[in-house]
Design the sequence.
Protein backbone atom coordinates (compact mmCIF):
# COMPACT_ATOMS: atom_id res chain seq x y z
CA UNK A 1 0.00 0.00 0.00
CA UNK A 2 1.39 3.45 -0.88
CA UNK A 3 1.45 6.21 1.70
CA UNK A 4 -1.39 8.02 -0.08
CA UNK A 5 -3.64 5.00 -0.63
CA UNK A 6 -6.69 5.13 1.66
CA UNK A 7 -6.99 2.41 4.28
CA UNK A 8 -9.98 0.13 4.04
CA UNK A 9 -12.16 0.44 7.11
CA UNK A 10 -15.18 -1.69 7.86
CA UNK A 11 -17.90 -1.74 10.49
CA UNK A 12 -17.93 -4.80 12.67
CA UNK A 13 -20.69 -5.87 15.06
CA UNK A 14 -19.81 -8.55 17.58
CA UNK A 15 -21.33 -9.82 20.79
CA UNK A 16 -18.64 -9.62 23.44
CA UNK A 17 -19.26 -11.12 26.87
CA UNK A 18 -22.98 -11.04 26.18
CA UNK A 19 -23.08 -7.38 25.10
CA UNK A 20 -23.53 -6.16 21.52
CA UNK A 21 -20.47 -4.12 20.52
CA UNK A 22 -19.68 -2.20 17.34
CA UNK A 23 -16.50 -0.67 16.00
CA UNK A 24 -15.09 0.69 12.78
CA UNK A 25 -11.82 -1.08 12.10
CA UNK A 26 -9.16 -1.36 9.48
CA UNK A 27 -9.69 -4.51 7.45
CA UNK A 28 -6.28 -5.84 8.53
CA UNK A 29 -6.93 -5.34 12.25
CA UNK A 30 -6.84 -8.51 14.35
CA UNK A 31 -9.56 -9.62 16.73
CA UNK A 32 -7.04 -9.21 19.56
CA UNK A 33 -6.48 -5.57 18.59
CA UNK A 34 -10.22 -4.96 18.37
CA UNK A 35 -10.69 -6.37 21.86
CA UNK A 36 -7.71 -4.69 23.48
CA UNK A 37 -7.47 -1.36 21.70
CA UNK A 38 -10.99 -0.55 20.50
CA UNK A 39 -13.06 -2.22 23.22
CA UNK A 40 -10.49 -1.76 26.02
CA UNK A 41 -10.69 -5.39 27.10
CA UNK A 42 -7.03 -5.75 27.93
CA UNK A 43 -7.45 -9.04 29.77
CA UNK A 44 -6.72 -10.70 26.43
CA UNK A 45 -2.93 -10.83 26.33
CA UNK A 46 -0.71 -10.64 23.28
CA UNK A 47 2.53 -12.58 23.42
CA UNK A 48 3.97 -13.97 20.22
CA UNK A 49 1.35 -12.50 17.86
CA UNK A 50 1.79 -15.40 15.46
CA UNK A 51 -0.30 -18.21 16.84
CA UNK A 52 2.23 -20.03 19.01
CA UNK A 53 1.82 -19.04 22.67
CA UNK A 54 -1.95 -19.16 23.20
CA UNK A 55 -2.00 -16.13 25.50
CA UNK A 56 -4.48 -14.36 23.20
CA UNK A 57 -7.01 -17.21 23.30
CA UNK A 58 -10.67 -16.19 23.48
CA UNK A 59 -13.85 -18.18 22.90
CA UNK A 60 -15.57 -17.67 19.56
CA UNK A 61 -19.05 -19.21 19.67
CA UNK A 62 -17.71 -21.30 22.56
CA UNK A 63 -14.60 -22.54 20.77
CA UNK A 64 -11.08 -21.42 21.76
CA UNK A 65 -9.39 -19.38 19.00
CA UNK A 66 -6.15 -17.42 18.71
CA UNK A 67 -7.38 -13.85 18.53
CA UNK A 68 -4.01 -12.69 17.13
CA UNK A 69 -4.53 -14.84 14.04
CA UNK A 70 -8.10 -13.83 13.36
CA UNK A 71 -9.23 -10.64 11.69
CA UNK A 72 -11.68 -8.54 13.65
CA UNK A 73 -14.06 -8.53 10.69
CA UNK A 74 -14.15 -12.33 10.72
CA UNK A 75 -15.92 -12.09 14.09
CA UNK A 76 -18.84 -10.20 12.53
CA UNK A 77 -22.11 -11.53 13.94
CA UNK A 78 -20.35 -14.01 16.24
CA UNK A 79 -20.17 -14.32 20.00
CA UNK A 80 -16.85 -13.72 21.75
CA UNK A 81 -16.02 -14.43 25.38
CA UNK A 82 -12.89 -12.92 26.91
CA UNK A 83 -11.50 -13.46 30.38
CA UNK A 84 -13.50 -10.42 31.53
CA UNK A 85 -16.67 -12.38 30.75
CA UNK A 86 -15.89 -15.55 32.70
CA UNK A 87 -17.07 -14.52 36.15
CA UNK A 88 -20.76 -14.07 36.90
CA UNK A 89 -20.66 -10.78 38.80
CA UNK A 90 -18.74 -11.49 42.02
CA UNK A 91 -18.99 -15.22 41.49
CA UNK A 92 -15.88 -16.68 39.90
CA UNK A 93 -16.14 -19.18 37.09
CA UNK A 94 -15.10 -22.67 38.28
CA UNK A 95 -11.83 -22.44 36.32
CA UNK A 96 -11.01 -19.19 38.09
CA UNK A 97 -11.96 -20.60 41.49
CA UNK A 98 -10.09 -23.87 40.94
CA UNK A 99 -6.92 -22.15 39.79
CA UNK A 100 -7.17 -19.66 42.65
CA UNK A 101 -7.45 -22.47 45.19
CA UNK A 102 -4.49 -24.35 43.74
CA UNK A 103 -2.29 -21.28 43.22
CA UNK A 104 -2.00 -22.23 39.58
CA UNK A 105 -0.28 -19.16 38.16
CA UNK A 106 2.68 -16.93 38.87
CA UNK A 107 3.14 -13.90 36.61
CA UNK A 108 -0.31 -14.33 35.06
CA UNK A 109 0.61 -13.62 31.46
CA UNK A 110 -0.67 -16.98 30.23
CA UNK A 111 -3.65 -16.94 32.59
CA UNK A 112 -6.48 -15.56 30.40
CA UNK A 113 -5.74 -17.93 27.54
CA UNK A 114 -5.48 -20.96 29.78
CA UNK A 115 -8.64 -20.10 31.73
CA UNK A 116 -10.67 -19.80 28.53
CA UNK A 117 -9.18 -22.98 27.09
CA UNK A 118 -10.02 -24.77 30.33
CA UNK A 119 -13.56 -23.36 30.38
CA UNK A 120 -14.16 -24.76 26.89
CA UNK A 121 -12.73 -28.12 27.97
CA UNK A 122 -15.07 -28.36 30.95
CA UNK A 123 -18.05 -27.39 28.80
CA UNK A 124 -17.26 -30.21 26.39
CA UNK A 125 -15.96 -32.70 28.96
CA UNK A 126 -17.13 -32.11 32.54
CA UNK A 127 -15.04 -34.96 33.97
CA UNK A 128 -11.66 -34.71 32.26
CA UNK A 129 -8.76 -36.82 33.50
CA UNK A 130 -5.27 -35.40 33.84
CA UNK A 131 -4.29 -36.49 30.33
CA UNK A 132 -7.29 -34.67 28.84
CA UNK A 133 -6.40 -31.50 30.73
CA UNK A 134 -2.80 -31.66 29.57
CA UNK A 135 -3.93 -32.24 25.99
CA UNK A 136 -6.38 -29.31 26.13
CA UNK A 137 -3.78 -26.81 27.35
CA UNK A 138 -0.96 -28.18 25.19
CA UNK A 139 -1.26 -25.13 22.92
CA UNK A 140 -0.87 -22.66 25.77
CA UNK A 141 2.66 -21.80 26.81
CA UNK A 142 3.41 -20.95 30.44
CA UNK A 143 6.95 -19.84 31.15
CA UNK A 144 6.64 -19.80 34.94
CA UNK A 145 4.94 -22.77 36.47
CA UNK A 146 5.90 -26.12 34.94
CA UNK A 147 2.16 -26.72 34.43
CA UNK A 148 1.62 -28.99 37.48
CA UNK A 149 -0.28 -26.36 39.43
CA UNK A 150 -2.32 -25.41 36.37
CA UNK A 151 -3.40 -28.99 35.71
CA UNK A 152 -4.23 -29.33 39.39
CA UNK A 153 -6.30 -26.13 39.28
CA UNK A 154 -8.29 -27.26 36.24
CA UNK A 155 -9.00 -30.65 37.80
CA UNK A 156 -10.18 -28.83 40.92
CA UNK A 157 -12.33 -26.60 38.68
CA UNK A 158 -14.02 -29.69 37.27
CA UNK A 159 -14.84 -30.78 40.83
CA UNK A 160 -16.23 -27.34 41.67
CA UNK A 161 -18.41 -27.33 38.54
CA UNK A 162 -19.75 -30.79 39.36
CA UNK A 163 -20.44 -29.79 42.97
CA UNK A 164 -22.33 -26.72 41.74
CA UNK A 165 -24.33 -28.82 39.27
CA UNK A 166 -25.17 -31.35 42.00
CA UNK A 167 -26.25 -28.51 44.28
CA UNK A 168 -28.60 -27.12 41.64
CA UNK A 169 -29.97 -30.60 40.97
CA UNK A 170 -30.65 -30.92 44.70
CA UNK A 171 -32.46 -27.58 44.75
CA UNK A 172 -34.84 -28.78 42.08
CA UNK A 173 -35.58 -32.10 43.83
S1 LIG B 1 -0.32 -13.90 20.90
FE1 LIG B 1 -1.67 -15.15 19.81
S2 LIG B 1 -0.84 -17.13 19.95
FE2 LIG B 1 0.65 -15.86 20.90
S1 LIG C 1 2.19 -17.84 35.06
FE1 LIG C 1 3.74 -16.72 34.00
S2 LIG C 1 3.56 -17.40 31.95
FE2 LIG C 1 2.19 -18.67 33.04
Sequence:
Amino acid sequence: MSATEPRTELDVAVEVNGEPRRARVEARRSLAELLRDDLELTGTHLGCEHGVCGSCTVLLDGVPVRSCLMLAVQAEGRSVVTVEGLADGDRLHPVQQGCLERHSFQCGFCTPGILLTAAALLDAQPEPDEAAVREAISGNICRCTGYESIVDGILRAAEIAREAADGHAGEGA
